[in-house]
Amino acid sequence: MGRGRVQLKRIENKISRQVTFSKRRSGLLKKANEISVLCDAEVALIVFSTKGKLFEYSTESSMERILERYERYSYAEKRLSGSGPGQQDNWSLEHPKLVSRIELLQRNIKHYVGEDLDSLSLRELQTLEQQLDAALRRIRTRKNQVMHESIAELRKKEKTLQEQNSLLAKQIKENDKIVMERLHLIQRSSALVLSEPAPGSVPVPSLAAGGPFQVRGPTGEEDGRRGKNTLMPPPPPPPWLVRRMS
């Protein structure tokens, strides 16, 4: 007699159930890999154990891209079928998608910071390492670009400041020259005013004895009365001299 078909039902024994899960999981992952290689198909496989541990498999393209593609196609098919739900149904449909995407993003963030790596296979770890290396290269490239831009901007500012300083120094030198020329002109004008009499002024006569204001007698000789020369009172000083003395 041939072997009869085994009825599929939940394995009650916990140990047997765990052993069966490990064997069937490995076989399922192997079959997923085979179909992706033989048929050149994009395959994404997600398995959660009874303890909530995640096991996944994806082809060369990332799991995120396959899930996004699935969501687009699924949503497009529902729109084309003509049986699209109402607004409330749309929200009900989007909610589990968003929750799944949030969980996926949180798990990826943990992987990127080096946490929760026990569930990753060797291939997934290599893929994660390649992604991190590529991200580091992009970060370093951007950092070097920002540094070069900052250095160029600082050099440009330095050149502008030097030009402004040169211009200010030239202006200060010109202002000093103008001030010195004006001061020299003022000194020359003051010297000329002190050395030359005003136009139309009369020279101050000499008041010494025997000067031009000595009183002489009728014969032209000096008056010898009281044994000395008789002098006439001097004329008042001219107005320009009064102003200058005051």
UniProtKB/TrEMBL annotation:
One of its GO terms (biological process) is positive regulation of transcription by RNA polymerase II. Probable transcription factor. PANTHER family: SERUM RESPONSE FACTOR HOMOLOG. Residues 88-178 form the K-box domain. Residues 198-246 are annotated as: Disordered. The keyword Transcription applies. This is Agamous-like MADS-box protein FUL-L isoform X2. It comes from Coffea arabica. Gene3D superfamilies: Transcription factor, MADS-box. GO terms for molecular function: DNA-binding transcription factor activity; protein dimerization activity; RNA polymerase II transcription regulatory region sequence-specific DNA binding. It is found in: Nucleus. The keyword Coiled coil applies.
